[in-house]
Amino acid sequence: MMHCLQFLIEPAKNITVKLKESHKKAQDEKREPLDESQQFIADLAKDLSRVCQRSEVLENISSGEDVWPTLTCRAFILEWASMLESKKRPMQTDGWPEKSDWKELALTNEQDIESAKKLITNWTKDLRAQPEQSVWPGEQMVVVLDDLEKHWRRGRMPTLQPAMELIFWTLLAKELDKENIPRQWLIWKQKSQKIGATPYIPHTVWDWISDAAVEVTLDLDTANPDLLISDDEKRMRCGFERKEVPNYHQRFDGWWCAVGMEGFGSGRHYWEVDVGEMDWRLGVAKESALRKGFKSLNTHTGYLTLRLERGTELKALTVPFTALPADLIPRRVGVHLDFDQGQLSFYDAEKRSHLFTYNESFDEKLFPLFGTVEIVKDLVIRSPGVRSRCMCPAMCLWG
């Protein structure tokens, strides 16, 4: 049978090869010359590829297939030169400028850019002198890098900057356990860039987050009397009539909220929530936080939350509040509490992308918080599913 079909297979292969060559030629003709900062990033990618030869992800940058905006290149150069100069470990981010500050600096400081380039160039020279085995990041890293590349090729990441950052960070933190590098990188990213730290979380890191999934149910004794709660205590929405219920001190009687039955005082915990399209609130409430009245539920009053208002305004209720870009508005939110690391992170659970992270030292129990004013669409706490470990070598093919 295969011999009969050979006359179809071979021409098809030839057509595919010619189409790829034609597409590459068209892309080459469209490319504009790289400016100095873009060329520096391309050269840096080539240098890093030499010491991380078991992944081809950086070849897309060094070949000019993945070209970053000039401002992104300049900000990257300033940030990583600062890391090299300070000799701080990447996990110790206190006092570092945030990403927005790097971009502002990148607009003006030409002399600083040149000094930063020189510092990085000297570092890469020293790096090339080291044996490859001493800087080899391990198979776990290659899986993560391949996953990032596949998502970039599918248009789900604008550039391969996260892959470049991960390799750079790995080479600076090479004393870490290689198996833990990708998850430690995410923790660092969420400390140094609280909003939208990464547009895609690699599936091995997402598995680590999901492994902390817990069953969360609503505590009826804390629910605002206007809320309608399902029999399984996992769905809620606003009703039209206020119920007659005991006025417990822990019950919300102003904001339309409820907390989970169980509070957490250590470890990692993850839960997912299907949210409405107009107005919702998610996060945690400290055990000591007051629940009566309409006092703002923000960091000053013991609440670490994310809220959507009027369907278009996504914000973290810091003081003052932190506005998040409208393109980050999710429909399913993942909440990851890492009590011991002092991080509460929010994710778009469908895109597996980062939304926002609170970083602080927790010293009391934290209770999952849920709020909604919608009367049609339920806010739904999802039960953790039975999940088998992914066997795909790179990006998961199933979920």
From TrEMBL:
SUPFAM superfamilies the UniProt entry points to: Concanavalin A-like lectins/glucanases
A Pfam family matched in the record: SPRY
InterPro entries listed in its UniProt record: B30.2/SPRY, B30.2/SPRY_sf, Butyrophylin_SPRY, ConA-like_dom_sf, PRY, SPRY_dom, TRIM/RBCC
Residues annotated as domain B30.2/SPRY: 196-388
PROSITE patterns: B302_SPRY
Cross-referenced SMART domains: PRY (SM00589), SPRY (SM00449)
Name listed for the protein in its UniProt record: B30.2/SPRY domain-containing protein
Origin species: Pygocentrus nattereri
